[in-house]
Amino acid sequence: MAGILDLLNSDLGKTIVSGVAGSTGQDTDKTNSVLTMALPVLMKAMQRNASSSEGAEGLMSALNKHDGGILDNLGDLFNGGVNSDVLQDGSKILGHVLGNKQQGVEQVIGQKAGIDANAVADILKTSAPILLGLLGKQKRETNVNNAGDLGGLLGGLLGGNSNEREQSFLEQILDADGDGSIVDDVAGMVLGNASGSQQKSGGLLDGLLGGVFGKK
User: Fold this and answer.
1) Nearest one of 6, 9, 36 to 127, comparing CA atoms
2) Residue pair 50/147 in contact by the 8 Å Cβ criterion
3) Which CB contacts under 8 angstroms, 24+ apart, belong to 132-135?
4) pTM for this structure?
5) HEC profile of 111-128
6) Neighbour-count burial for 127-159, b at 16+ CB within 10 Å, e otherwise
7) How far is CA 109 from CA 7, 10, 24, 35, 209, in A?
8) CB of 188 within 8 A of CB of 197?
9) Which pick of 3, 42, 46, 95 has the fewest CB atoms within 10 Å?
10) How many CB atoms lie within 10 A of CB 51?
11) How far is it, in rounded angstroms, from Cα 147 to Cα 37?
C-alpha cells in the first residue's frame, strides 16, 4: 500500500498542493511543506481516535460520506477558490480529529514551515475534506467495510515508510495541549533551537523527512 505522502508526491498530489495553495493565497512550496508535515499528524490522530470503538464508528461514518468523489472534480473545486461549504466541512473535520490539540499542531507546523499559524489553519481547512476523500477512496478500493479494520487501513498508509522514532515525533506533536509549553518544547526540538539539541533534532527531522515523507 502506498503511503499517504507517496500520494502527495504523485501527479494527483501535486494538483492538490497547487490547488490548495491557489485557494488559500499561499506559496506553493510552503503549502507543500505544511501538507507534508500535517498529513501524517492528521493520520496519526485519526489512528489514535479509531483505537476506541466510538472513534472508529465516527471515522467510518465520515469516510462513508467522503467516498472520494471530491477527487473527481478538483478542477471545479479549485476554480476561483474553495467554497464555504468545503471550508466549513474542513473546520469540523479538524475539530473532530485534533480536538484541543489543533492550535498547538498548527503553531508547531507554522514555525517549521515559516508561515503564520492562521495560514496553516487555512491550508488544513481546505485540505482536510480532500484527505478524507483520499481515505474514503482507499477504504472503498481495499474493501474496508467495518470500523474494526480502520486501524489497519490508517496504519498501512502511515506505516511502511515509518519507524518508531518518527511515530514518537508524531505523538509528541499531538501531545501539544495549546498552552504554549509543550508546543515550544516540540518546536525547539524540530527547529533545533534548544541548547545542544541541534544534532539530535536534525537527526530526528532527517529521519522524519526521509521516512514518513518518502524523501531520501
Assistant:
1) 36
2) yes
3) 132/62, 132/63, 132/66, 132/93, 133/66, 133/67, 133/68, 133/69, 133/70, 133/71, 134/4, 134/7, 134/68, 134/71, 135/46, 135/63, 135/66
4) 0.78
5) HHHCCCHHHHHHHHHHHH
6) bbbbbbbbbbbbbeeeebeebebbbebbbebbb
7) 20, 22, 16, 9, 14
8) yes
9) 95
10) 12
11) 26
> What per-residue confidence (pLDDT) applies to 121?
96
Cell numbers at residue 67, please?
467516498
pLDDT tens per residue across span 35-57: 998 998 898 889 888 888 898 89
Nearest to 9 by CA among 42, 32, 38: 32
Which residue is it, cell 499517504? 4
Q: What is the phi-psi region of residue 160: left when phi exceeds 0, alpha when psi lies from -120 to 50, beta otherwise? A: left
Among residues 119, 155, 120, which one has the least CA distance to residue 4?
A: 155
Please give the torsion angle defined by the CA atoms of residues 49, 53, 59 and 62, in that order, rounded to the nearest 10 degrees.
-150
Q: Compute the distance between CA of residue 89 and CA of residue 96 in angstroms, rounded to an integer.
A: 11
C-alpha cell at position 112:
517549521
What single-letter amino acid sits at 51? S
Quick one: cell of 76?
A: 471545479
| Cβ-contact 182, 81 below 8 angstroms | no
Nearest Cα to Cα of residue 108 among 196, 162, 33, 7: 33
- The series of mean pLDDT values per 10 residues for the chain, 216 residues long, is 76 93 94 91 88 89 89 86 89 92 90 92 95 92 86 79 56 60 48 38 39 39
